[in-house]
Amino acid sequence: MKITKLTLYRVPPRWMFLKIETDEGITGWGEPVIEGRARTVEAAVNELSDYLIGQDPLRINDLWQVMYRGGFYRGGPILMSAIAGIDQALWDIKGKALGVPVYELLGGRVRDKMKMYSWVGGDRPADVIDGILTLREIGIHTFKMNGTEELGVIDTAQAVDAAVARIAQIREAFGNSIEFGIDFHGRVSAPMAKVLLRELEPHRPLFVEEPVLAEQAEYYPRLADATSIPLAAGERMYSRFDFKRVFHGGGIAIVQPDLSHAGGITECVKIAAMAEAYDVALAPHCPLGPIALAACLQVDFVSHNAVLQEQSMGIHYNKGAELFDYVINREDFQITDGYFAPLPKPGLGVIVDEERVIAASQSAPDWRNPLWRHPDGSVAEW
Ligand SMILES: O=C(O)[C@H](O)[C@@H](O)[C@@H](O)[C@H](O)CO
Ligand SMILES: [Mg+2]
């Protein structure tokens, strides 16, 4: 079998889908994108296609090494997202060629269902209570929300109290009938993370995500020593080589590699295995589309330490399209009492509505994340 063509579609809300065609009529789909830099990843995928056209798509490991090691400069969000989406599509082709879901190619399922969670509240974490009440109606009991708005490197007791009060309200309203993670979203400095973690401790969040920016990873062990709240990170780490420093340094209880940013299925199953060796849980990051989610689920079902799966239904970013709008077999993404069933179909398990993708790609927005500023006019972490 030979790869004949790569086609990219940028589609609302902020996703990009890749279709890889072969000379035997089998096509694979992937989702290579970095939110806010889709056009840059588009260019990277097009450059990498030089290594792919004419090659055997079933030799995923070799193609992965060629794409990664073939360039003198490697790693980082753009290149690893491009490789990720291509890798997803190659696994999709292989599964379809052999008539089995990808998890069968990775040794079969270690579990019968996979626990998921939903976002509540938006960029500025307001009315999370209503969001939780609505989602509980459809059997979802685990949530995630942003922990703060803009926060200064050193901020006020008032700002800390506002962040904590929101969380206290949730526990007051729901007790421990629900669970929730708090995403600091990299908005919190190391000194303020220590303050916030201490104040949040009594409310027992399931985890605190990105307690500091990934570039401040050396603080993870110190912050972990200062709190009993499990710390999570990973969406802004892009390969085993980024994660190995975090495993070695310690402090992170849950790693969250993004299947569309960290080199795809080939790389993320290896990151999951490294995590297991350090007794670290896996909770793949996925605020993106259905192909990325399907790739996550393929890894979840073969990873003993997979504990939670993010998905973007109702997320505040999905303006202009919802998670399953481009999926024909949405019934396969069965959620029962907050758990996904394994995807039954060959490959990644997603049947893409190509017509709808092509139509939507005509009006794809150039999504950018908001640029926030502090009251003094300086740039704030979003
Ligand atoms: O946990 C999450 O989903 C992420 O922090 C998410 O909010 C960001 O990755 C966002 O997609 C960046 O544009
Ligand atoms: Mg996050």
Automatic annotation (TrEMBL):
Cofactor(s) the protein needs: Mg(2+)
Originating organism: Pseudoduganella flava
PANTHER family associated with the record: D-GALACTONATE DEHYDRATASE, D-GALACTONATE DEHYDRATASE-RELATED
A GO term, aspect molecular function: magnesium ion binding
Family matches, as InterPro entries: DgoD-like, Enolase-like_C_sf, Enolase-like_N, Enolase_C-like, Galactonate_deHydtase, Mandel_Rmase/mucon_lact_enz_CS, Mandelate_racemase_C, Mandelate_racemase_N_dom
Residues that hold Mg(2+) according to the record: D183, E209, E235
Active-site residues per Swiss-Prot or TrEMBL entry: H185, H285
Residues carrying the site annotation Increases basicity of active site His: D258
Name this polypeptide is given: D-galactonate dehydratase
Domain Mandelate racemase/muconate lactonizing enzyme C-terminal: 125-230
Pathway membership, UniProt: Carbohydrate acid metabolism; D-galactonate degradation; D-glyceraldehyde 3-phosphate and pyruvate from D-galactonate: step 1/3
Gene (UniProt): dgoD
Catalysed reaction, written as an equation: D-galactonate = 2-dehydro-3-deoxy-D-galactonate + H2O
Function: Catalyzes the dehydration of D-galactonate to 2-keto-3-deoxy-D-galactonate.
Species lineage: Bacteria, Pseudomonadati, Pseudomonadota, Betaproteobacteria, Burkholderiales
Misc. comment: Reaction proceeds via an anti dehydration.
Alphabetized Pfam families for the sequence: MR_MLE_C (PF13378), MR_MLE_N (PF02746)
Keywords for the protein's UniProt record, in alphabetical order: Lyase, Magnesium, Metal-binding
EC number, as in UniProt: 4.2.1.6
Site (described: Transition state stabilizer): E310
Cofactor: binding comment: Binds 1 Mg(2+) ion per subunit.
Family membership: Belongs to the mandelate racemase/muconate lactonizing enzyme family. GalD subfamily.
A GO BP entry: D-galactonate catabolic process
